[in-house]
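The instructor's notes for this session suggest beginning with a concrete chain rather than abstract definitions. Hand out the sequence below and ask the class to guess, before any prediction is shown, which regions might be ordered.
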Amino acid sequence: MFDDRTMLPENDWIVSATDGKQKKTIGKICEDLEISKYKTNALPLYVIADYDGNPLNKPMPTNLNVEEYKKWLDEGVGAV
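After discussion, reveal the predicted structure:
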């Protein structure tokens, strides 16, 4: 969603608590959320989260190692 450049109505704009800049698009707001909540802006960032958005295991950036990714998925499912 970071690449979504859809301009939001002015009443939906936010000022980032992280960098103090105004965020006007869906992508910039999503990016700011990821940085503030997970301390990264990795693309993609995989997160297995509960209903409140709290990660059930450590978020994982791009990982092309299938076995490591499967292990990470199993950890997340096991935390449910």
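Then share the key points. DSSP finds two helices and four strands in the chain. The helical segments are 26-38, 66-78.
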